[in-house]
Design goal:
478 residues, 51% helix, 3 domains, five-stranded mixed sheet, Beta-Lactamase
Length: 478
């Protein structure tokens, strides 16, 4: 919630700043327009005969109208071109001599006087109706034959208006300052309102995204948003992350269940032989019964086997932990891998339990030297072969093959039951066991996990390819 309001406030402040800047730019633009208009007022357009046609500024037009005042001896009049312009503008003119007396007029209204005092001229120029006419009055002058003439021009009020603006400079500055502040405050309030509305639309999706991330962080992976709008890609990534986390959570629960089952199985596998050891030890310690030498030897053999079994389980757990934590120090030395693998196969075939099994060894090379920890590599081959023997029928055929390119490849292939695609995903997991262990299925269930970690410690790789009913092939790459 805090992050959501932080984003909203920053965006609103940004909108306000933009509006204020735009307002200032508008003020500068208005000033520029006024200045531009002031420049435009200097524009005068003439026709091909150098006759005034249009004047942007009425005052400038009136002052330049002297070009149409002509004289014939002492008689002053307006040229025909000037009369046409006056007719077009529905205007009139009155020419006065130096004493303010009329010497000429064109279309002058009847109530306009023929003589003016200086005050009347000033009053008539400032105020409409000041000389008896409701028209807007403009004044110009022209010197003809050493005589100074002035003229009054009247324009319809609906065409040209005039206002007299009298102000105190200090008060005007104070007024403009206050007006500017008020305008900026009003603009800021308006910008705040609309900026908030707009920012809510923009930041609401961000709020959804933040809320979704918070849910994912709290472990609620049931997050899904329709992929639309400008945040389409983010929604897509968020949905993908949710799907991935849900999948990982399912896998985690599976592994957790497998781990619990594995611990329970290991506990059972330890308790069972431990119970036998305890039982036979109690029998042997019973002074009320006289045991024969053969019975003592039989019970001792059972205790010895059970003890070795427990030791092997503990050794497996210890080795798996060391490999997982990268604390195992490899005792590397140059070894002939062909000899090592062949001897491992022979040792298994010499075991009375497996001397009738079909295990073949193939290698085109007699010597393949590699710096490895021979005891650990032998452990890998043993684990792979025992898995193939234990988890298949008695008539299973196993082939061990070695080839060399830039690496050494050891293949262990059987034609047994195969492994399902679901089981393959967990085959190298330390908590996965294809079958429960016991004396008939000797081991901790860590065999494949240990094999993978041993090969990884040698910077190698191990791959598995299997199909139900079609056997299994495991490749070790060193």
């Amino acid at each position: 919630m805090k992050m959501r309001w932080k984003l909203t406030s920053r965006f609103v402040l940004t909108v306000i700043a933009v509006v204020v800047i735009v307002t200032l730019i508008n003020i500068l633009a208005v000033i520029s327009v006024f200045m531009g208009n002031a420049v435009d007022r200097e524009k005068i357009i003439y026709n091909g005969n150098n006759e005034l046609l249009v004047e942007a500024n009425p005052e400038k037009f009136a002052r330049n109208f002297h070009n149409y005042l002509l004289s014939d001896r002492d008689h002053v009049y307006v040229s025909d071109a000037g009369k046409k312009i006056l007719d077009r503008k529905d205007s009139w003119i009155q020419v006065l001599d130096e004493n303010g007396r009329e010497v000429y007029n064109y279309k002058k209204p009847e109530n306009v006087p023929e003589k003016y005092t200086p005050f009347q001229l000033v009053h008539g120029y400032k105020y409409s109706g000041g000389i008896g006419s409701a028209d807007t009055i403009l004044i110009g002058e022209k010197k003809i034959a050493d005589k100074q003439y002035s003229y009054i021009m009247g324009f319809p009020m609906n065409e040209i208006g005039k206002k007299v603006f009298i102000y105190n400079k200090d008060e005007m500055g104070f007024f403009i300052k206050n007006i500017t502040i008020i305008v900026l405050l009003i603009d800021s309030v308006i910008a705040l309102f609309f900026g908030y509305l707009f920012s809510r639309r923009l930041t609401k999706p961000l709020g959804n995204i933040i809320s979704g991330v918070e849910k994912l962080g709290e472990g609620d992976y049931n997050v899904y948003y329709p992929q639309k709008g400008i945040y389409r890609d983010i929604y897509d990534n968020l949905n993908s992350l949710s799907d991935t986390l849900k999948s990982n959570e399912r896998e985690r629960k599976k592994l957790e269940k497998m781990r619990e089952e594995w611990i329970a199985n290991i506990s059972h596998d330890i308790k069972t032989p431990l119970a036998s050891i305890k039982g036979f030890a109690e029998i042997l310690s019973d002074n009320n019964y006289a045991f024969s030498q053969e019975e003592i030897q039989s019970y001792a053999d059972i205790i010895h086997k059970k003890s070795n079994y427990i030791k092997e389980l503990v050794d497996d757990l210890n080795l798996a932990t060391r490999l997982k934590n990268k604390t195992s120090m490899l005792n590397r030395r140059e070894v002939n891998l062909v000899k090592l693998v062949r001897e491992t196969v022979i040792e298994i075939l010499n075991d009375p339990r497996y001397n009738n099994r079909d295990i073949s060894f193939i290698s085109e090379e007699s010597v393949l030297l590699k710096e490895v920890d021979d005891a650990l590599i032998k452990r890998v081959i043993n684990n792979l072969l025992y898995n193939a023997l234990i988890h298949n029928d008695l008539n299973v055929k196993i082939e061990v093959k070695m080839i060399k390119d830039e690496n050494v490849h050891i293949f262990v292939k059987d034609n047994g039951k195969g492994i399902s695609s679901e089981a393959i995903k967990y085959i190298f997991n330390r908590y996965y066991r294809g079958t429960n262990t016991g004396e008939s299925h000797k081991g901790s269930g860590l065999g494949m996990a240990i094999a993978k970690e041993i090969i990884a410690a040698h910077d190698g790789n191990i791959k598995i390819n299997s199909m139900l009913g079609d056997g299994t092939e495991i490749e070790v790459i060193l």
